[in-house]
Structure formats: C-alpha cells, structure tokens
Amino acid sequence: SKGFTQPGEWHPVTMYPPMTVSTIWHTARYFMNIIRPSVTVKVWNAREQERIEGLSKAEFFEKYGFVLLHRKTAMRAEDWNACAPKTLDLSNFTGIGMPDFETPISRIYAKEVEQVVRELMPEAKEVELDPLCARRGPGTKNPTYSF
Predict the structure, then answer these.
(1) How far apart are alpha carbons 75 and 31 in whole angstroms?
(2) For residues 110 and 101, what is the distance between their CA atoms, to the nearest angstrom?
(3) Is 90 strand, coil or helix?
(4) At residue 77, does pLDDT exceed 60?
C-alpha cells in the first residue's frame, strides 16, 4: 500500500539508489576502469631529467607541472597534531563550523609554502592555505590512513 505507515507496521526499505540510465552508465564505467588490464609505463628520474635539460626549478615546473624541492620546515610533529581537525566531521566537507583561529599551519607553514609558490609562480596574486591539516597515522588524532 502506498502512503505513510503507522508505527509498528512493516514496510519495504530499499538500500540502493533509483536505477536510471545515468546510474547504470556510471556504474558500468566504474567497473570497466577497475577491471582493465594493467598498462606498462616508463618511470623517469625527475632529478636526472632536470640536470640533463639544465632548467631552473621554475622552468622545470613550468614545463612539467611539478618540481622536486628540498626544503626544511620549522613545523614540529606537535604543530601538525595541533592543526588536525576532528575525524570525518561535517565541517571537513562544508567548511561550516571550522575553527576561526590561528594554527601553526597558518602561522608557520603558510609562510613557508607562500615563499615556494612565489619562487615558482611569481605572477601568483594570492596564496591561500587551509589552517587545518589532517595528519594521519599511528599516534595522531586520525590513526587510520582513511577518513
């Protein structure tokens, strides 16, 4: 019977989304991607490539979209832990309810990152960094490597 059921009455519950052409298509594409045969790729040594081409860090970044940098940070393990948000919270997805306070990331790390970004992309007008960081692993607020 259609309509609302009364407390204590049995009613069917479905555990899947409505089947539409779109959901069937996206499901099929997902499974086609995960059962594809493996592909052989060649892995290049970026440090060697940079040396061979004689490019600056900024030029290498411009050409390939990434660059390997060696930088020390003033951040300590305690600083990263202090910046960790609660695990899998609504604010992680929406930004609503995120704390509005200075963290070691906004005080220390953001300045370090901004310096690197300005070196590689001097034309950048603004650099913005999230004041929280989900540091994951044993001994952290997020002990698993997932959410």
Answers:
(1) 42
(2) 14
(3) helix
(4) yes
